[in-house]
Write a structure and sequence with these properties.
Blueprint lengths: L2 E2 L10 H12 L10 H20 L7 E4 L2 H16 L5 E5 L4 H12 L3 E5 L9 H7 L4 E7 L12 H10 L4 E5 L11 H4 L3 E5 L10 E5 L29 H12 L4 H20 L5 E2 L9 E5 L6 H12 L1 E2 L13 H5 L4 H5 L1 E5 L6 H17 L4
Helix pairs in contact: 1-8, 2-8, 3-4, 5-6, 9-13, 10-13
């Protein structure tokens, strides 16, 4: 039996998703842009899925644009927002703990001459609303801050952004990366104050290769601001090309399969508490998360002479336990999140992340803790 505790990297597709994808592949394989019956049937599924995603965000169907995933959605949001506002200012506000798909586009804009403010977290990865208010001014054209951090689980004060923008008299557009928040907590696009929101299917038990961007209809942004590819009418010309109706249907099915997110959150919080107690029984383990961080994510230091990459390889090869040492997109590089938090190299180099889903169990935690206890006793930190 494989113990899977790397749900921030990706999740196991739910049965509803698999069934929807297979049905599209086998029966409903028409091009959604075709005008015959198979094409029309495929487009119906695209529309139904888009409606489901919009409903889950308290948005309108016309405000949702499909992408290949969270990375493309973040890129479209950032470059599109800056293109739309570049004549009104030159400043971008973000944090030092964003996902690489936000940081790298912003770093590219910084090279082009834009002023960028990277808000620094505290010891537990927290950013305060006061930091946001202090950073946003009349020259700010974009504020891009994630809702939940993918490595440390800190919940950022994203609802304060709108108030900060209003107080400063700023023309800034607000982008919230909700890839790790979507499907974990209830998100209302309007109440969030966001102009742009990004989500991804494979974090919510949907398929890889499909995501979406919410673009508020109340925002004075034309679709051409976002277009980076040309060659078709699909997705408002923002993302032209034949829609991948199979993946879109799987995305929609995963969203429709959402249970009561508040009840699920409470269940995961109980599991997180159980994991913290079990881990505390092993001498030397240090939890890096704050108590009020998102319970789906737990990051901790493992007191062994092995670095985290070796620890996760040992857990995988010997015990069939899947964990992570940070963002999967970082490909094993030193965590920029833990570095920004000011943790010493000793902690950074030997910390691993476990992340839960609705399929996670206490038995998974027991097996992990037993394996860690054996590894630490066998390979102690001298």
């Amino acid at each position: 039996m494989t113990v899977y505790l790397d749900n921030c990297a990706t999740t196991k597709p739910c049965e509803e998703c698999i069934e929807a994808v297979m049905k599209m592949l086998s029966d409903n394989y028409g091009n959604p842009s075709s005008l015959h019956n198979l094409g029309i049937d495929a487009m119906k599924e695209v529309i139904l899925s888009k409606s489901a995603i919009a409903d889950s965000l308290g948005a309108q169907r016309e405000e949702i644009v499909f992408t290949s995933g969270g990375t493309e959605a973040n890129n479209l949001a950032i470059f599109g927002a800056v293109k739309a506002r570049r004549r009104l200012g030159n400043k971008i506000v973000t944090t030092a703990i964003e996902h690489e798909s936000v940081l790298q586009p912003i770093q590219e804009l910084e090279k082009q001459g834009f002023e960028v403010v990277y808000l620094m977290p505290d010891r537990y990865g927290n950013i305060t609303q006061e930091q946001i208010f202090d950073a946003v001014d009349k020259n700010t054209i974009l504020v891009s801050i994630m809702y939940i951090n993918n490595e440390i689980g800190s919940v950022l004060p994203v609802r304060a952004i709108k108030r900060a923008v209003k107080k400063a008299g700023s023309p800034a557009l607000i982008h919230i990366d909700c890839v790790q928040a979507y499907g974990k907590i209830n998100i209302n696009a309007k109440k969030s104050g966001a102009d742009l929101i990004t989500v991804s299917a494979h974090k919510i038990h949907g398929p890889k290769g499909i995501g979406a961007i919410y673009i508020s209809r109340d925002t004075n942004i034309t679709d051409r601001n976002f277009a980076q590819m040309f060659g078709g009418e699909q997705e408002r010309k923002i993302r032209p090309g034949t829609e991948c109706s199979e993946l879109i249907a799987g995305f929609g099915a995963a969203v429709k399969a959402f249970s009561d997110l508040s009840a699920q959150y409470n269940d995961i919080a109980e599991l997180n508490s159980y994991a913290r107690k079990k881990l505390s029984l092993t001498d030397g383990i240090i939890i890096n998360n704050a108590e009020n961080s998102c319970p789906y994510i737990l990051n901790f230091y493992v007191p062994t002479f092995m670095r985290s990459q070796t620890v996760l390889q040992e857990l995988s090869s010997k015990y069939k336990i899947c964990v992570s040492n940070g963002s999967a997109c970082a490909k094993g590089k030193k965590s920029h999140v833990l570095t920004a938090m000011g943790l010493p190299d000793e902690i950074i180099d030997r910390s691993i992340r476990i992340s839960f889903s609705k399929y996670s169990t206490k038995q998974d935690i027991d097996l992990l803790c037993n394996a860690l206890d054996t590894l630490i006793k066998t390979h102690p930190r001298s």
